[in-house]
């Protein structure tokens, strides 16, 4: 005999089915967040196993980072773009958590980041975070911190100006706008440490470069970077 709670759940699923953000098909009862087919189709980079990968090369001659990586390749109209769109604009925070748990396990298993002391997400401007209701990077970053057994802090790096969306801005305009919009919380004394700076998508690297420079104004602070995806 079916329990009343099971019956209610089945009725709810009938009228409000959970859809896969990658392909818009209905998830089966044993699937979580993303359907099985889309999980197999995710374009993983494998950068965490490779030195001098495209993320690290992006910062050559710009700013010193210890290491860099990205989980997925971001193609226009591809599955990664669909996932991140739903994460940012469709209230699907569980996508960030799923990707963070997945990639955190891979990073831990490979030894990437075994000297990381602290994980910090690239912050949103408070106005934008209030409007969205969350920072889309937080869930991903928290899971990386847990997997790497590092502290998670989102009260250290702050964004002081709202520049709007970055997706369609060229490299020069991104750099000019990001030049002075990040700062360190004046109430916090940042100790000597190795920080993993985390963002959603890396395109030109301008935002991560500016955040890294801001963090490195404090003595003996090392920075590595990790993102959900990199544009190709």
UniProtKB/TrEMBL annotation:
<protein>
    <submittedName>
        <fullName>ComF family protein</fullName>
    </submittedName>
</protein>
<comment type="similarity">
    <text>Belongs to the ComF/GntX family.</text>
</comment>
<dbReference type="InterPro" id="IPR051910">
    <property type="entry name" value="ComF/GntX_DNA_util-trans"/>
</dbReference>
<dbReference type="InterPro" id="IPR029057">
    <property type="entry name" value="PRTase-like"/>
</dbReference>
<dbReference type="InterPro" id="IPR000836">
    <property type="entry name" value="PRTase_dom"/>
</dbReference>
């Amino acid at each position: 005999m079916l329990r009343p709670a099971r019956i209610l759940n089945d009725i709810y699923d009938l009228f409000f089915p959970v859809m896969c953000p990658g392909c818009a098909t209905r998830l089966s009862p044993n699937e979580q967040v993303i359907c099985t087919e889309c999980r197999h189709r995710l374009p993983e980079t494998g950068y965490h196993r490779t030195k001098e990968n495209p993320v690290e090369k992006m910062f050559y001659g710009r700013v010193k980072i210890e290491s860099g990586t990205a989980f997925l390749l971001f193609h226009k109209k591809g599955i990664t773009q669909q996932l991140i769109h739903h994460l940012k604009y469709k209230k699907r925070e569980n996508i960030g958590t799923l990707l963070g748990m997945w990639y955190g396990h891979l990073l831990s298993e490979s030894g990437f980041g075994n000297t990381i002391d602290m994980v910090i997400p690239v912050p949103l401007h408070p106005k934008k975070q209030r409007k969205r209701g969350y920072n889309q990077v937080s869930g991903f970053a928290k899971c990386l911190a847990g997997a790497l057994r590092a502290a998670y802090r989102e009260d250290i790096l702050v964004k002081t100006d709202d520049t709007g969306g970055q997706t369609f801005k060229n490299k020069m305009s991104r750099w000019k706008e990001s030049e002075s919009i990040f700062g360190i919380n004046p109430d916090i004394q940042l100790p000597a440490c190795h920080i993993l700076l985390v963002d959603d998508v890396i395109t030109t690297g301008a935002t991560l470069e500016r955040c890294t420079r801001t963090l490195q104004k404090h003595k003996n602070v090392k920075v590595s970077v990790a993102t959900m995806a990199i544009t190709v």
